[in-house]
Amino acid sequence: MCSGCKAQHENIEWSSNGSVTLRVRKPEHLSGIDAIVLPGGESTTMSMLLESSTLFDPIAGLLNEGLPAFGTCAGMILLSAKVLDGRSDQRNFDSIDVTVQRNGYGRQLASFEADLNVEGLDAPFRSVFIRAPKVVAVGADVEVLATVTAADGTEAPALCRNGPVMVSSFHPELTDDPRLHELWLAQ
């Protein structure tokens, strides 16, 4: 992106690795993007904001055309094919063949951290699970890159990828470790 663009868009940030990030708040912000991150938050609220800002359909169109996407926690819910325990009017993008259960590991008090062994990384990744969605099913083409052991002793996928779409049950953005974002961008 040209340096003159920064003056036109107050929502542009330049990172130390040379990438440019843009906060997408309006449909016109989607013009020319190479990828999108759907962050953690509250998926119902995010879905409603995507609708009220008229961003849902344009993002859905870009995802259907193959736009790379990384969804973390609530972003995972929005990108998933099926959501259990969601609102009946909540829309999701159906961009990766996973079924998720909202708050699958419990409410706020059940939040936890875990070191995950991630395929493609040379050392464990510290992961923060806050009211996290639990992956309960994955499609045949979905690659599980990491699993987590829940408090009840069961294992569940925590990081999945299918083509240009990667999703995590946890919040990598709450750590100072850029390796998952780098792994996603390198695909």
CATH fold field value: Rossmann fold
Measured on Cα atoms, how large is the radius of gyration? Answer: 16 Å
Distance between the termini: 21 Å
Percent range of helical residues: 10-25%
In terms of structural class, how would the helical and strand content be classed? alpha/beta
Order of helices and strands: HEEEHHEHEEEEEEEEH
CATH architecture: 3-Layer(aba) Sandwich
Strands, count? 12
Which runs of at least 5 residues are low in confidence (pLDDT < 50)?
A: 1-9
Integer tally of domains? 1
* Average of pLDDT: 88
What gross morphology would you assign? globular
Tell me about this structure.
The strands form 4 sheets. Strands 3-4-12-11-10 form a 5-stranded mixed sheet. A 3-stranded mixed sheet has the order 5-6-9. The chain has a two-stranded antiparallel ribbon with strand order 1-2. Strand 1 (12-14) and strand 2 form a beta hairpin. By secondary structure, it is α/β, with parallel strands linked by helices. The model is unreliable at 1-9 (pLDDT under 50). The relative contact order is 0.16. It has one domain (34-186): Rossmann fold (3-Layer(aba) Sandwich), CATH 3.40.50. The protein has 5 helices and 12 strands.
In short:
It is built from five helices and twelve strands. The protein is α/β, with parallel strands linked by helices and 187 residues long.
Sum up the structure in keywords.
3-stranded mixed β-sheet; alpha/beta; 5-stranded mixed β-sheet; Rossmann fold
